[in-house]
Amino acid sequence: MHVSVAPMMNCTDRHDRYFLRLIASDVRLYTEMVTTHALMHGDRKYLLTFHPAEKPLALQLGGSDPNALAVCAKMGEDYGYDEINLNVGCPSDRVHSGQFGACLMLKPQHVAECIFKMQEQVRIPVTIKCRIGVDHQDSYDSLYQFVECIAAAGCKIFIIHARKAWLSGLSPKQNREIPPLRYDVVWQLKQDFPDRTIIVNGGITTLAQIEEQLTHVDGVMLGRAAYSNPYWLSEIQANYFKNKNISTRLEIIQQFIPYISQQIDNGVRLNSITRHLLGLFRGQSGASAWRRYLSEHAHQPGAGAAVLEKALLFV
Question: Which residue in 144, 148, 253, 306 is deepest, having the highest Cβ count within 10 Å?
Fold first, then answer.
């Protein structure tokens, strides 16, 4: 049984992952998508370094060159990641123009080569995250053939966003909301590929929904619901993992403050961390005052941990 938090651009950065780990010790976390171009030509150390407390942690790669993906997968393993995940689901214009992300679903043989090359270089699992279809290529037969091809290359774990993607005409946000969810398609995949691990992603917002999904597939990946209401992960930790030691919201902030102070000493701005905390008190008395105080004060020059301590007075 797998429960994880999805890779989300501009959300699941290192600060957010450290914060989420204070809430749930065992839910698997994923990086934001990192492109092979950025790793090959950019600040590799900055892009790959993470705090040991974030583990278990997967690195999500975006790219379409099998050799570059293989090199970057090895980098990820060398840095200590537990899994390398290939993004074949992102529908943004950026990935479309770069010929990676969801448009790769139209090239199953090429994706299979990418997976094969990556697996040659690493001993950790190489997994794939995709959609149930792209544009008008959205039949079950097409999806079956795609999974069959990738499975033949040795991939054992498939994370399936239960919506198709439109490569043009919809924004990434609209692609998360407009194409209808088709959980039945993902469930059918598990029946047809019983020896593969099938994890479903998309629209899961309650424990009851998780329970239903786990009667059909091997795991669930949570997205925006886990980001906007992060303390929900404490319920998931208590329900699905052996470690039942759950910290209160106040304890989580108290545990987080030394990390925040260290990051500020390293030149990180407070609001780049506190933006991930706005939903911590969701549904609690004083939640809106907490959000407002952080939003109004964390961006100011010289803002430090004292801002959090004052914000806590509202809750």
Answer: 253
